[in-house]
Amino acid sequence: MSIQDTMIPDVDPTEELRQREKRFRALIENSLDVISLTDSKGELLYISPSVQRVLGYTPEEFTEKQTLLIHPDDLPRILHLYDELVR
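Structure (tokenized):
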């Protein structure tokens, strides 16, 4: 047994990942900001519960109405910026 073995506790990688996911979920579900996650095509994967407090939509309603929140004049620029982001 080395000194390193006694100083660094054994960490199960699966449990460590589970704990990180738990912290991440707690962060986004309790944030005061609206947090959304999308895939590389721009499809909404997740919207935080705070969307109801901020915009008045439940997460389910927002998922159905998300395109209505982008002004048509802004759409080309937003699509360009999103394309740059996912490259």
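The first helix runs from residue 3 to 7. The longest strand covers residues 44-47.
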